[in-house]
UniProtKB/TrEMBL annotation:
Protein name: Transcription initiation protein
The organism's place on the tree of life at top rank: Bacteria
Length: 113
């Protein structure tokens, strides 16, 4: 079994007027389905009201993230699934619920983590 990150940046979620409540309902429903199927690990969204800080190896803290990297925002879910094909199917269902495409990535296994 592998863990898959299914995610989208905030800018990808463009919800037509009047549909936001339906998106919330549908996205919560698909997450409940992942839980019922036993594949849900965790999920949520980046709290964009709290700015990131960059913490160096010496403990120094600087406001903001990496200056050269794109902003990390949006929502994500981590699912533990037996195959990439199954992960694609779940990602498609999440995309339908959220009304936006989802990126699918696999986590590398680290036996020490």
């Amino acid at each position: 079994m592998a863990k898959y990150l299914i995610s989208f940046p905030s800018a990808a979620m463009v919800v037509p007027d009047g549909e936001f409540e339906a998106v919330v309902r549908d996205s919560h429903a698909i997450i409940e389905e992942t839980k019922a199927a036993g594949v849900y690990v965790f999920g949520g969204g980046i709290d964009e009201s709290v700015p990131p800080v960059l913490v160096a190896a010496d403990g120094a803290v600087a406001e903001g993230g990496y200056p050269w990297a794109p902003t990390l925002d949006g929502g994500f879910a981590v699912l533990e699934i037996s195959s990439r094909d199954e992960a694609v199917k779940w990602a498609a269902r999440i995309a339908k619920a959220c009304r936006c495409s989802q990126e699918l990535r696999v986590f590398g296994f680290d036996p020490q983590s």
